[in-house]
Specification:
This protein is of the alpha/beta class and 424 residues long. Helix content is 40%, strand content 17%. It has two domains: 4-55 and 320-423, Aspartate Aminotransferase, domain 1 (Alpha-Beta Complex), CATH 3.90.1150; 57-316, Type I PLP-dependent aspartate aminotransferase-like (Major domain) (Aspartate Aminotransferase, domain 2, 3-Layer(aba) Sandwich), CATH 3.40.640. The chain has a seven-stranded mixed beta sheet with strand order 4-10-9-8-7-5-6, with helices on both faces. It has a four-stranded mixed beta sheet with strand order 1-2-3-13. The radius of gyration is 21 Å and the shape is globular. It binds pyridoxal-5'-phosphate (PLP). Pyridoxal-5'-phosphate binds next to α5.
Amino acid sequence: METMFERSQKVMPPVARRATTMGVVKGEGSYLYSETGEKILDFASGVAVCNVGHNHPQVVAAAQKQLADLIHGGHNVVYYESYVKLAETLVEISGGNTMVYFSNSGAEANDGAMKLAKYVTKRPAIISFKGSFHGRTIGSMAITASNAKYRQGYEGMVPSVYFAEYPYLYRTSYKAAEGVCPSRYFEQFDELFDLIIDPYSVAAIIMEPIQGEGGYIVPPKEFVKYVREVCDKYGILLIFDEVQTAFGRTGYMFASEYFEVEPDIRTLAKGIASGFPLSVVMAKKEIMEKWEPGSHGGTFGGNPVSCAAALATIDVLQTTGINNAKKMGIYFKKRLIELQAKYECIGDVRGVGLMLAIELVHEGKKPAADLTNSLIKQALEHNLLLLSCGMYKNVIRFIAPTTVCQEEIDHAIEILDELLAKMS
Ligand SMILES: Cc1ncc(COP(=O)(O)O)c(C=O)c1O
């Protein structure tokens, strides 16, 4: 019998080709079940979406109840309970002084955030960071700089976008004492404003508090705080793209809590609704209040079922998920560091909470994309699903659900240990 992959090849373009050729028929907790009958330990979580595991019973029940009551009302047309309740909940968990606007995808939310920043400041320019990934729409692609391939064939995008350097300290060429963020990362803003773009023409600086696709790069806290200071100095709005980092991924509801930095605008998607499409532009109340009727919109934003699933997801995170992510994140990282001590090819272990990664290298820190590919492929043959990331495609990220248990982490480590032993 033909597999789903083989069937899809006849009807879908190459652009739809993805990380694996596996067809799946069911998901439950930390596991996916394949069409060929395999039980796969899923540490990809649909790319950081199923943060409370696959088909969490509370999420399923909430979605089913909403399905029976109302599938679509249209937020341009009417109000409905799950939509309003989710807005109230998001405002509450973000400190009470925010407002939210619902869309469908991370890219759409980032487009919305940029529109909001431009609209409110009446300034044209956006500063983003090298290594960043913000999505695939024309707008979000224009601020993305983690892979030239994403932009290839589409140049001539949104104008007035500038890129600053993100402190990727494992690979930095700037000198500084161990554990200190090189001064160049701070000074670059003065240079940018002196030589290239007037700071008072900049609407927003958009940053991932931890870079996702770029390689699970955690910047020093003092750098993130400094970016906040730069924004305050020139009246620039700070946008945190928390599409990948929020909803328990880092052991916090929002990664901003880890960095102790509040953005003016925050974008959310992926983990919010456990797989139902939903995204959010969240901003300080005084900013959102200036976004006038007609300035932004969309038919499907804030779908009733997605909102109901999001409310259940947030409840699971608040009652158990976030605490477990903190605890299991510490344990998982410790086990990865033990592996690093055994295998020279693991150049770096990094991450916060359950947003963890290893960077694979050859001698002299040369990026080992070949090893990365091979390890991921072999891991899947042992029923462990992992994804790569990184500007040099040599990082393996571990995106376990916040509901993961120690035995599942141990099992993944055992597989990696066995494969690395064979490879070295
Ligand atoms: C940080 C970040 N922003 C934006 C996006 C785009 O989200 P979406 O694919 O839902 O448009 C992604 C997706 O990987 C992401 O990781």
